[in-house]
Protein 1
Amino acid sequence: MSATIPDRHSEQPGRIMSGEIVEQPAVLRRILDEGGPKIREIAEAVAAKKPRFVLLTARGTSDNAALYAKYLLEVRLGIPCGLTSMSTTTAYGAQPDLTDVLVITVSQSGGSPDLVASTKAAREAGAITLAVTNNAESELAAVSEFHIDVLAGPEKALPATKTYTAELLSLYLFVEGLRGGDGAAAAALPDLAQRILARGAEVKQLAGRYRFAERMVLTSRGYGYPTAKEAALKLMETSYIPALSYSGADLLHGPLAMIDAISPVIAIVTDGKGGEALQPVLERLRGRGADLVVIGDEAEVAKASAGFALPTDGVPEELQPILEILPLQLLAYEVTIARGQDPDAPRALAKVTETR
Amino acid sequence: MSATIPDRHSEQPGRIMSGEIVEQPAVLRRILDEGGPKIREIAEAVAAKKPRFVLLTARGTSDNAALYAKYLLEVRLGIPCGLTSMSTTTAYGAQPDLTDVLVITVSQSGGSPDLVASTKAAREAGAITLAVTNNAESELAAVSEFHIDVLAGPEKALPATKTYTAELLSLYLFVEGLRGGDGAAAAALPDLAQRILARGAEVKQLAGRYRFAERMVLTSRGYGYPTAKEAALKLMETSYIPALSYSGADLLHGPLAMIDAISPVIAIVTDGKGGEALQPVLERLRGRGADLVVIGDEAEVAKASAGFALPTDGVPEELQPILEILPLQLLAYEVTIARGQDPDAPRALAKVTETR
């Protein structure tokens, strides 16, 4: 099932993870400068095939990037999408008719045998196949009709950070390309990411709130929802704090009962329609006396128990997820350090998870 | 956002929920006897329209039923499916082209304004629309082209139980109808459900293990995965224990780090390919010294720390979810009673959640 786990205890705990977090502005710039034209070419070739449906396949962090792409495809392109339940093909041998279906498989390593197998099967079933990976030499890239390299450079930390934002930006540029756009709105991201990552001291202070937390809840709506899921995953795999994530609407269907004054809630409030749709949920949470931390707009942060104001000046809502996750990656790192653990050495995990 | 919360504190805590749990064998029998022919008719009418893609829309417990239907549709019919991200239409006004798309909306009450609005929008966008509700007089039933009544009778408890299994069986019969089958394999379910629900004493003993649990993890693969999600929701909304659910494969991508000897894991091991695919995950969990409770096959239960053996004699894997959830509903009830709370009165919840 798993590869041997290398000894990742570095002299300075979290050195590998923090090093990759701060690489992100440079990675985003590389994608815009070097990756953009190639992504646009691929998007044009895919658009010419006129896909009617999109299926997205991924696991872990890449699954959260796939969910982001689902929102983009549905909202900006009006193409119905689904996230694959992979066991339907790998365990049950389902053979769906995939004519006119674009199957996008997202994977940092491009090496998971189940993703390779399901992509192969999709191609044989008539799908247009696109792999989005951080390894152009990977088997997944080889078996797919199209491949986008997210150009993040080798990722050595077990908790994925720079490949997540690289996947988001690459998928954004791809979807913009499908609709004939140039993705120019993304140009501001590298500098904004730099400014956010320079505010580590603020996040460190925020981390103090969670040092002793026994659980956490993350919530958002719309474009911010993948951020809530990815932040929960990051917190769990580094600090081991059980972190539950819900879309704001789902939170009201049951899990709200679990929230009390000792359960901190992190809300990602995008500056746009998702943030607006989250307002009634925030009201309910405040009404229940929840400890509410807001990542987002300054005015929203001011109304919460604490937060991190995002400089989204002019960045459209659909690009904000690339910025929102940055303070949350730092938070996962800082909480883990505060708890005396090493973010570079999550117990029990291997970099390439060989699920079948 | 929410209706006024009625005073549900009954004299005997959990009386309403437990009353509805034990109704399930009768509800299943009613669906088979009275609902079956009508469901088959609807399935034939939908099949004649030759849908190429299915989108499922639901929230909370019904969303778990929708996920079950997604597995059925993909595995048994080979139709690609997606679960709707509802905010794409309600918040962002996405207008996907839904020609040849079957949109199935599942809702106990049929009254959530967002589900009504998204179903209307889908119908206008060319979709074949099917509502699956427990209220034939509901607005959702009215705005949909087709409607399946799950015939569970009024559900008064806030934690949904009998409408969940009623939704599962109705969706199963619908999918069987789509493929021209008669769903005869389901005939054994009412009696088996009765036998399982008679074993309350066993579940009560199991509940003792979790009385002081600070968190729980539920896992499964394939057809059992919706059961893991629904059991987690049930535990959270009644006992407030944070319960995380993962497909076995996803568990290995990060959250595994969180599992230690004090984090109980409940694994739903179906008797079939899903259970086989879960084996490597069970091995990893045993290797990490996790407290592992198995719901499923007797031999699997024997290898675990504890469990509940399911009498699945001859019931095909795709029908087992209708049985698997029963001991877990009882468990949520018993743990809540053991913790001195009232399962009939989850704080902060209303029966019809009016998300928009």
Protein 2
Amino acid sequence: MFQNFDVTSDPSNGRKRLAALRKEMRRKKLDHYLVPHADQHQNEYLPKHAERLSWLTGFFGSAGFAVISLKQAVVFVDSRYTLQLREQVDPKSFKGANLIDTPPTNWITSNAKKRARIGYDPWLLTVGQHERFLKSAKEAGARLIACPNLIDRIWPDQPAPPLGRVEIHDISHAGKSAADKIREIQSAISAKGCNHCLLTDPASLCWLFNIRGSDVMHNPLVLGFAVVPAKGRPHLFIDKRKLTDDANTYLAKLVMLHPPSALKARLTKLTSRKSVLCDPNLVASKLADIIVKAGGKIVRGRDPVVLPRAIKNDVEISGTRNAHLRDGVAVCRFLSWLDAQIPGTVDEIGAAKQLEQFRVTTAKNMDSELKELSFDTISGAGPNGAIVHYRVNEATNRALDDGTLYLNDSGGQYVDGTTDITRTIAIGTPPKQAIEDFTLVLKGHIALALARFPEGTRGVDLDTLARKALWAEGKDYGHGTGHGVGSYLNVHEGPQSISKRGMEPLLPGMIISNEPGYYVEGEYGIRIENLVLVREAEIPEGGTTPMHGFETLTLAPIDLRLINAEMLSSGERNWLNTYHERVRNELTPYVGNDSKKWLATATKAI
Amino acid sequence: MFQNFDVTSDPSNGRKRLAALRKEMRRKKLDHYLVPHADQHQNEYLPKHAERLSWLTGFFGSAGFAVISLKQAVVFVDSRYTLQLREQVDPKSFKGANLIDTPPTNWITSNAKKRARIGYDPWLLTVGQHERFLKSAKEAGARLIACPNLIDRIWPDQPAPPLGRVEIHDISHAGKSAADKIREIQSAISAKGCNHCLLTDPASLCWLFNIRGSDVMHNPLVLGFAVVPAKGRPHLFIDKRKLTDDANTYLAKLVMLHPPSALKARLTKLTSRKSVLCDPNLVASKLADIIVKAGGKIVRGRDPVVLPRAIKNDVEISGTRNAHLRDGVAVCRFLSWLDAQIPGTVDEIGAAKQLEQFRVTTAKNMDSELKELSFDTISGAGPNGAIVHYRVNEATNRALDDGTLYLNDSGGQYVDGTTDITRTIAIGTPPKQAIEDFTLVLKGHIALALARFPEGTRGVDLDTLARKALWAEGKDYGHGTGHGVGSYLNVHEGPQSISKRGMEPLLPGMIISNEPGYYVEGEYGIRIENLVLVREAEIPEGGTTPMHGFETLTLAPIDLRLINAEMLSSGERNWLNTYHERVRNELTPYVGNDSKKWLATATKAI
């Protein structure tokens, strides 16, 4: 199994761990201590040894921040995690706060006393974050104190950093050789007038050198750092124990290999009197300090790998279509299996396990392999479906009862593509209100799937299309509508997004999710998610502006029992029927006899 | 008449004026000279003596910027003015460039040589602009040189600064006394921890002190400056010759009055060792220099008047409804008159004059007065309609010919409200393609008019609603969809807008335009514009999120001859019919017997 359902969080640990941390803080004469949900690479999903926020507070969402003071402790999470926070964290020890509306920097400005000492680990704050905290501290008359990580001192059984095996990501999947990619990135570094670029994002390393790893659960990442010069061989800092002989030979031809322990000395030597392109939203302030102390000049700019990684090439696009076919077959088999069960006899964990099993066997049947899940399956029955980033464990596990909705958000990592799909399923006879709400969400999903938009359009310009039908009924959802997705890489990949903050133009070749939802606390959650590919769109006769549009990649039925067809326009019905016809045609040859009949019914025209 | 149709621009002047400017530049050893479309107050519409860009280049749009070098001269305009620029400016002397995509700051970075000297008038660049030019100059290794305005030295018949009469804006229209407003703004200044606020935007002065003037054509503005202390009397710098005895008595009770010539000395004295709230997008860098030299501290922040001015109070809202009724009657009488004319017998100037006349007489008939037009009427027949901010003059004047479209964008300044309306009219039998395009634009207009959206929604979130129908046909328009509108103040008023850059939440009480369009160069222009008021919206049963929506203020028929009813959904048809019913009911009592029958036909249900 690629996932477990252990109760990883115990709110009762918070109090004594907090006491231990405060003891360390007093030793360092600190009034506050910053605990970000972060590692040295700004990974969204952290390697186990870096799960410091979770260890300290009990909160294990994928975004958060704690400010620990001697008398109080505040955990900041975004609206996706508000419910989850209440369940996982001891309310006597920790106060909750909204990460977006009242961020920790504001908290510092308003709450830190004059001359207060605020401790932080400079490996865990980026250059940009450090700057913002510095500004807040200054406004409060307080000081930021860089110090070794205090959690590491009090975490007795902290795991060691990971040593996941490094694999070569073959050009038959990558579509472009590492040598070509390096040349491309080196041109970008030259164009910025820089001597070097410091890459700290493992996804950038993986893309650039065509390697994949398993240092982080669900994300095929290799933890490491790289210094790419404008000319000549890149330097890659990586633990050699991770390399098979093949990988070692492959990498030795491309780069100079160094152990991570050599980073400081080598960076100092390389960057002295040189200009170094650093992404202020990725590079740790510690590394910037090293460069500046070496007499190097930091040039701020986006990680040059970000855009080429986001714009998939033809080989990657063809790969993702194959991965989605395979994944669609697995999901279809799962949905068909689920429909055959008597309501109440399956629970959330059972369903998640079964789906994972279908993904494993389907991949094998179709001459491929499920390398990993793309993330812990969100398997939420009834009210648990309303917890936007729910992770089921033995304590929260619920049966899929008659008359409820079941929300399943899951994905697979295949060597040719990363998938991410959400389906909301009627268990028995669904509540009438749920059908209306589901149809509103579907209208939003379709509006986005059908959108045609001019070059230069950004995600922010499209987000409203997915919400309009809900808004008309006085409803909304508290998360973004779409995130970028990698090619056998992170399931959350920038720079593009469809959300209120999506300022990145959507370019052909980008993969993004289309996932509006609606949540009724204590009752049910609804989300419909397909991945889509940005493509150039046909211009209708008489049209004058070059247009883009989306191709839907995900292939699985959308539950017809939750749709009120009368609420759909003919254009919307047409999209649904065409999509279902395509799903049926593409999946039927692979779903097996058990599911064929089910699929025909599940995809019938309405 | 509140407008004239003179040919104000003569491209042939450009060459010799440019030569004169270059002579001055050589005298000052300047390699480049910046000529913004700006006065000391960052007015959008400039007083005549500040029309330096227009005098130099011939271009008289409402936004632009020139960078004059010894060998070349570039005029930067946005996409609204691309066509206009070609007609008004001598292409042998001036090159055109896009103000948004390739702004002058970028031009400086790429084109200024090392040690180049770039001259500018520090009264005409804001603190923020100055900073951006400084950065660009630094990147190029060039220097910014503040100097007295060079255009003023070579403009022989430059008009004197205006001395428009100041009127008291009665509380029966303002809805709140100046004393109350001053207290409100002073709280905001205190909350920012500042001792003073420097106000340089005439619209802020007018709103705060409840005065109106006529220093700028079409905008009832009083040019001046104010220093508002957190406690005590504000200081107002204004030419006393503008004040009637009444206004003098009124203002003397509220503020300390000073002549503008006293500004530098008084500002130096007031701000020494004090913190002064300055809006970096409004305050001239010259004034910031004075404060800094005096030992004052600049605190950057938005002009505190901006938001209270944008959020209209109940008296202002009731006033604007009355103004729109009056204006709607005038427009209706005009449209009815126009329909009675034989195609080809009316020209653009004739139409604009006739409409102005209807506005004057209608206001008088309805016990009010047209104080001014809100802007020069855009009266564009056929291909001239495709010039987005067209201003007709004797040279460009065209007849409204059979088989063409006529676009009229106009507005009135009444003491109780400012209006702005665009109607596109079929002259004779319109081309079939124009009907389809008009209907697409109408669909966008209706989508926005009907929008319901959660608190916190910004203009950027709604802009796409107005474009979606056009996008689906491969079409788009190159301007924003809506701008804020003042209450007997500027017809373009921030901070809200409906556009790709509209980051300001739309709050109840804000007035904004809803004006999608579509333009076919050389053929026709289409725009449908109503003003709308942001209001709290009813939440439908089952709704869970507080919602806002729009109330349409503008009252005038939308040309049914340009609508293909088959392209409208039943919801869209319903909006149109309900709107037309309201227009008919509200206007009929006032339009007079000539127009009653026409109005009934023009507003019949489809």
Protein 3
Amino acid sequence: MNRRTFLKTVPALAVMAGTTSTSAQDLQPITLVKPQKDGGKSVLAALQERKTTRDISEKQLPPQVLSNLLWAAFGVNREKASFGKPGRTAASASNSQEIDLYVALPEGVYLYEAVPHCLKPVVTGDFRRRSGRRSAAKAPVNIFYVVDRTRYDEGPGQPDRNIGNPEVQKSYYYVATGLIASNVYLFAASQGLAAHFHNCDKQNTAKEFKLRPEQSVLFSQTVGYPA
Amino acid sequence: MNRRTFLKTVPALAVMAGTTSTSAQDLQPITLVKPQKDGGKSVLAALQERKTTRDISEKQLPPQVLSNLLWAAFGVNREKASFGKPGRTAASASNSQEIDLYVALPEGVYLYEAVPHCLKPVVTGDFRRRSGRRSAAKAPVNIFYVVDRTRYDEGPGQPDRNIGNPEVQKSYYYVATGLIASNVYLFAASQGLAAHFHNCDKQNTAKEFKLRPEQSVLFSQTVGYPA
């Protein structure tokens, strides 16, 4: 399918939405259903199925699957862990929890808030294609990995004397991204879903998501059913 | 326990070995038993158990568990994937497979070779404490994450035009480390093992492992039974 054919087959709203964003006021918060904590393949069986799948169908994820996916990625699995914060399914340096998941659905972009396990509106419009892959433009979910470097400002409780060094921070937040992305890959493999971690349009996405200067878009991961 | 007490309680050989390395000729390759591809908790149940555990017992891992651990981390799960290479349990940029696992066991350090699924001797001696944590010094396994930047030299088949950029490479190899480390965390959680991903002594370790200039030690992960 060439680009012209592709554009013709996409509804006009979806084509426009990537360029004409409106405020998040039009979007309603999404309360995610309670995530399931068991079911699907074993870790070893999921590792055997783990792979990158680029061809992903347009079929939407049922609410329970979306909830499970986000909890698996970086949900709360312990009320208290270290440094006065809850524990998450993925580790982070000194439990800084520096990565935020910006979740692009067809109608808009939401921030995943792990403690209440809900999606908070960020911007209305279809930004799924900002994940940079044409194949991702119509997949049901694109997760954008965004670092917030202010999470490293910990004050006296911070045990890592190098955490103020930007090069050290870089090593931490990219590793943290990989730790979450692997949870997504294994959850997908355990449930027969398809996943694809990849580059994205970092500069434009940061503007469109109205990020602060201390935040940066790092990578993106597309999830859905295999096409 | 202070450092003096700690040193007194460790056998003399183990104390010496971190500083007096001998050649790898004394070590024999280890053929790993065939990894199991199922068993243990589901992915969702393992995510609920995922946490960092710093207190790890001295108890050694049985051969089957060591084999399963390394396969889970970054083993081959498909004979052919992309760019003429096999598929691995963790993704990497353009399937560059740029991360090597250097596995420190009590008697020496080995390189994990994924295709034959074996451990190749690197250096004799006990380098487990180079993972930088006293608690890790006697844990049965410390995995050192080492990047080999020559894996990005792909020639005409390389589809990523930015892969020669050192900053881009950095983002790739730290994410790749996180992807593998998460596999280790989830495998550990699925089997009741303890795992701890952390900094390590990068400079000395690189010398002791006789790495080439294109290689760097990034992080380390300790695995064993909970103490």
